[in-house]
């Protein structure tokens, strides 16, 4: 199938009536608190995400980044506050939300084709055998959707190869395609760049940015290293010390803001090519802060 754009995958949506702002938000988080095993992970988290925004949830290991994403997906209940997704309380299985969990590693002997892996995003939860005559039209539509999202993420050349034979970057593109195949309005990605080399990190990040731009889907991406997507982001949600700060990257990832979040001296360094490094001063921050984020 030849495809020239993504319009048939993600048909144009009518704008929500009313003034642009919080009322149009796809996701609203209000006073959210999470306690696990008697410990407060984060509290009083507040933000909203608009259609088409590219937002990263960042912070050190163990800060609760993935936990926040799972709360938005309705997979982990809040201890306090509320989260609204597409006008409803956060709940499991929302078809307008595409989710790619932390990257799975497919061993070399996994023979399922990339195309079939993407198709599981549409019908992987169905029981029973298909009925050829009753399901023929549905099967054609499913095949069309699968082909279109494969094209959208740039995976056409290898979609018919066994997933276990593909590189990490190729596998990740197909997992993103699987999350897109239901035509979601929100794309939630948990560490999609983890374990990829720098070249593949950049390539996959560019795929995510293009998907957001072409489909209008809001992207919520968890990462421990913000650098591969830094120039692409509209905003960041930075979690540290049980708190969260939300805003443009250049406003949030600063020495002043992060020192306040961590409750200890923190220095943010910027290199000539725009990368950032967050460094805890001697005797200061614990918990894996040292390094790039």
Would you mind describing this structure in some detail?
The protein contains seven helices and 13 strands. It has 293 residues and is of the alpha/beta class. The chain is globular and about 60 Å long.
Do you know the CATH topology? Rossmann fold
Rounded mean pLDDT is: 85
Structural class: alpha/beta
Q: Determine and state the CATH class.
A: Alpha Beta
Biggest sheet statistics: 6 strands, mixed
- Order of strands, main sheet, comes to 6-7-8-3-9-10
Q: What string gives the helices and strands in order?
A: EEEHEEEHHHEHEEEHHEEE
Q: What proportion of the residues form beta strands (DSSP E)?
A: 15-25%
Radius of gyration: 20 Å
- Tell me what the CATH architecture is: 3-Layer(aba) Sandwich
* Number of structural units classed as domains: 1
Fourth CATH level, the homologous superfamily: P-loop containing nucleotide triphosphate hydrolases
Helix share bin? 25-40%
Distance separating the two termini: 40 Å
Number of helices: 7
Tell me, what's the shape?
A: globular
Which spans of ≥5 residues are poorly predicted at pLDDT below 50?
A: 1-8, 11-21, 282-293
